[in-house]
Write a structure and sequence with these properties.
The chain has helices spanning about 10-40, 45-60, 65-80, 90-95, 145-160, 175-185, 190-195, 230-235, 250-265, 305-315; strands spanning about 115-120, 125-130, 165, 170, 195-205, 210-215, 220-225, 235-240, 245, 270-280, 290-300. By secondary structure, the chain is of the alpha+beta class. It folds into 2 domains: about 10-95, no CATH class; about 115-300, Calcium-transporting ATPase, cytoplasmic domain N (3-Layer(aba) Sandwich). Strands 1, 2, 5, 6, 7, 8, 9, 10 and 11 form a 9-stranded mixed β-sheet that branches. Strands 3-4 form a two-stranded antiparallel sheet. Strand 6 and strand 7 form a beta hairpin.
């Protein structure tokens, strides 16, 4: 879209065009008045009056204006260069002064590129997860235990292609690594969960906005699904409440959607989690699921960002 965007005039060019237009109109009106005064009141020869008016109009046109503007912009470029800002087009100097919205890359520039799950929602309850980053420090473990939480974090760990090295260095997508860390905060031996045999995988797709895996456990096979909360809810017919599977009502959906909206309004990225028990790997369709809950994560800002944003506002 940027490549196909038509060339637009800068604010300075628009202002200069407007100035030139009005100067032209004013000069023509004054020259007309001079011509009429010379002919009607001063009885000047018409040819001489016409030449006088033409000479006045030529003298009134500010031929030096483009040169003056170029020199002024050149001085601006020199000043910005001292502040380590390289300007390719002179017009950008003036345009920069009129900027009121700055678009910037976020991940890794404003943030640390270390996604961290900070809130979990299941069974109509919000759980706070302590700690930032990929290392689980003592005291940051989640002390609450329940079947709902067990499924929520277990799905996040198993429906996942990333891993943490022995030195706890992340390998894979930051979002998925964050789910491994949140799983560790609930159950510090996630390798026990990951020992389950993975029979099949349906990778994330931007149209489906879902990812699912089929795992084999001692008693049953399960389809585990994670993805955009709205897509997860579309595919759910049941919900896990206090460890019991019950039908998913419209009231339940509205409550979950409202909570998802609250998380999103607080700059949190939200993923939904669901599962179902299956009898064979052929039953891996992502429908008729049991909704479990949400995990909300944030990419913490870099320490120096606050000062940078403040400098921007002051500028």
């Amino acid at each position: 879209m940027i490549q196909e965007a038509p060339e637009k005039q800068t604010k300075l060019q628009e202002d200069l065009d407007s100035l030139s237009k009005w100067l032209g109109i004013i000069i023509l009106i004054i020259c007309g008045i001079i011509f009429l005064v010379n002919v009607l009141w001063l009885d000047t020869d018409m040819k001489e009056a016409f030449l006088t008016a033409i000479a006045l109009s030529v003298a009134a046109i500010p031929e030096g204006l483009p040169a003056v503007v170029t020199i002024a912009l050149g001085i601006g470029v020199k000043k910005l260069l001292k502040k380590q800002s390289l300007i390719k087009k002179l017009g950008s100097v003036e345009t920069l002064g009129a900027v009121n919205i700055v678009c910037t890359d976020k991940t890794g520039t404003l943030t640390q590129n270390e996604m961290t799950v900070v809130k979990a929602y299941t069974n109509e309850t919000i759980y706070e997860l302590k700690g930032i980053g990929y290392k689980v420090k003592k005291g940051n473990e989640l002390t609450e235990k329940s079947p709902n939480l067990e499924w929520l974090f277990k799905i996040g760990v198993l429906c996942n292609t990333s891993k943490l090295s022995e030195k706890h260095e992340p390998i894979g997508d930051p979002t998925e690594v964050a789910l491994l860390v949140s799983g560790e905060k609930y159950h510090n031996k996630i390798h026990e969960w990951r020992s389950a045999e993975k029979l099949d995988e349906n990778p994330f797709d931007s149209e489906r906005k879902l990812m699912s895996v089929v795992i084999k456990e001692k008693k049953s096979d399960y389809l585990l699904v994670k993805g955009a909360p709205e897509e997860i809810l579309k595919n759910c017919d049941f919900i896990l409440k206090n460890g019991t599977i019950t039908p998913l009502t419209e009231t339940d959906k509205k409550t979950i959607q409202k909570q998802n909206q609250k998380f999103a309004e607080n700059a949190l990225r939200v993923l939904g989690f669901a599962y179902k028990e299956i009898t064979s790997t052929t039953e891996k369709s992502e429908d008729n699921l049991i909704f479990v809950g949400l995990q909300a994560m944030i990419d913490p800002p870099r320490l120096e960002v606050k000062d940078a944003v403040q400098t921007c506002k002051e500028a």
